[in-house]
């Protein structure tokens, strides 16, 4: 019975460093600061627009690093996967727009922006975790 807690402690000790320097910290902090200053719906929308651009830049940074760090067979698979993810993202964003367009009020545009930003954020963090996963012993 003691093995389960020990296993989880060991797993946590190896995975926590992976997330310690996560790119999420700076972008999320900047988004929060922007939201705290926002006085209008347009201001809030601009906060999400900037955060989405920042996450897109981070996604590309992680993707380029993965391509650079790996052999051609891995790069080929990553490129194919990324092309499929872009199709998914575009389709999901269209569906998100349609879903929130049926609602009344300006808040739904902000919620749609956050939803779309989170798709990019999740992918950027996924690529980051992929890169870091083989460096657990470093």
List keywords for this structure.
mainly alpha; 138 residues
- Cα distance, first to last residue? 30 Å
Q: Mean pLDDT, rounded to whole units?
A: 87
Cα-based radius of gyration, to the nearest Å? 18 Å
Q: Unreliable stretches, pLDDT < 50, 5 or more residues?
A: 5-19
Largest sheet: none
* Oligomer designation: single chain
Morphology? flat
Description:
- By secondary structure, the chain is mainly alpha-helical.
- It has one domain.
- About 85% of the residues lie in helices and about 0% in strands.
- The chain starts with a helix and ends in a 5-residue tail after the last helix.
- About 10% of the residues have low confidence.
List the helices and strands and how they pair.
Blueprint: H1 3-20, H2 24-37, H3 41-69, H4 72-101, H5 107-133
Helix pairs in contact: 2-3, 3-4, 3-5, 4-5
Brief overview:
It contains 5 helices and no strands. The chain is mainly α and 138 residues long. It has one domain (3-133).
